[in-house]
Specification:
mainly alpha, 12 helices
């Protein structure tokens, strides 16, 4: 039996959650041009390391103040390690390095191709049935990826093709983490696990930043502002918001709303960084969004899940 959704004073179920979801979408969309500006001042892997170090400290402090800071139970440690390694460290490392090559708008689209990879992975790992709509959606989405990436194959610098590949690999890592989350039986809540996942990410990113990045010099105001926004707003706040929203809205509502990120990302990157939005990007966005919608859309109802909901991704 499903729990009855809360109703706001206006009588609409989940109005506060819908507002927070909209704020989350805007926060993640803006994070792509902000990261692009930030890694111009801070080396990419160092930026990723500092992002998770700061976010881990913030979330651990909040958890401690609310009496929710505790060592994860033994059964949750596999998920902590997988999520911290793939969803956070791996995704962030590949995405930030790719941003040194690829425009932020295109990066936000390719990185959000994750749901397309979840479908075949869920079939392989969880034995989930692939419906005709899901199969067609994956094919349409892959066509969109090709449209976006094709101009960089043999026509521009080879580095752009490498950047596209890094972003698709980051999306695949995120997809593996999502499938592992689906198969996991939580003991602690996602919020209680979050600081530990971020600590794992920071520990993995530290040696990579130390040996692969140039030394960090003095961080200027632009780099500090970008780092503060991405670590506090797009990571710590966004993770909490995703947990809160995920416990109050249907997964289909959240998934469809997050499709706005690869739409807003290019627009914000164009307005803030002056990036060009060409027809390949526009057509590719439409194809990818259509493919994701076909692959993931379900009965759009606002419900309260009966079990803790793990955030579906890092956002940027």
């Amino acid at each position: 039996m499903q729990a009855t959704p809360k109703k706001s004073r206006e009588g609409r179920p989940g109005a506060g959650a819908l507002f927070l979801l909209a704020a989350l979408v805007c926060t993640w969309s803006l994070s792509w041009p902000v990261m692009k500006a930030g890694i111009a001042a801070v080396p990419p892997l160092s930026f990723a390391f500092l992002r998770y170090l700061i976010a881990a400290i913030v979330l651990a402090s909040v958890a401690g103040l609310t009496g929710r800071l505790r060592v994860p139970p033994r059964g949750d440690w596999p998920l902590v390690i997988i999520s911290g390694t793939l969803q956070m460290a791996g995704f962030s490392a590949l995405a930030t390095v790719a941003l040194t090559i690829v425009p932020a708008g295109r990066a936000s689209v390719l990185a959000y191709s994750t749901p397309l990879w979840v479908v075949p992975l869920a079939r392989f790992r969880l034995k989930e049935r692939i419906s005709l709509a899901s199969g067609v959606g994956v094919a349409i989405g892959l066509a969109g990826i090709f449209v976006i990436a094709e101009p960089s194959i043999g026509r521009r610098s080879p580095g752009e093709a490498v950047g596209n590949a890094l972003l698709l690999a980051a999306a695949a890592m995120w997809a593996v983490s999502i499938v592992c989350v689906r198969a996991h039986r939580f003991t602690a809540t996602p919020f209680e696990l979050a600081p530990w996942q971020m600590i794992i990410a920071a520990l993995l990113l530290l040696p990579a930043a130390t040996f692969l990045d140039p030394p960090i010099g003095a961080i200027d105001a632009r780099g500090a502002a970008a780092l503060a926004y991405v670590s506090l707003a797009a990571t710590a706040f966004a993770y909490w918001a995703m947990v809160w929203v995920g416990q109050r809205l249907a997964a289909s509502i959240v998934s469809m709303a997050l499709l706005a990120v690869p739409c807003l990302g290019p627009l914000l990157s164009a307005s803030i960084l002056g990036e060009t939005i060409g027809w390949p990007l526009i057509i590719g966005v439409l194809l990818i969004l259509s493919g994701i919608a076909l692959s993931t859309i379900r009965n759009l109802r606002i419900i309260r899940p009966q079990r803790p909901v793990e955030p579906s991704g890092d956002g940027g």
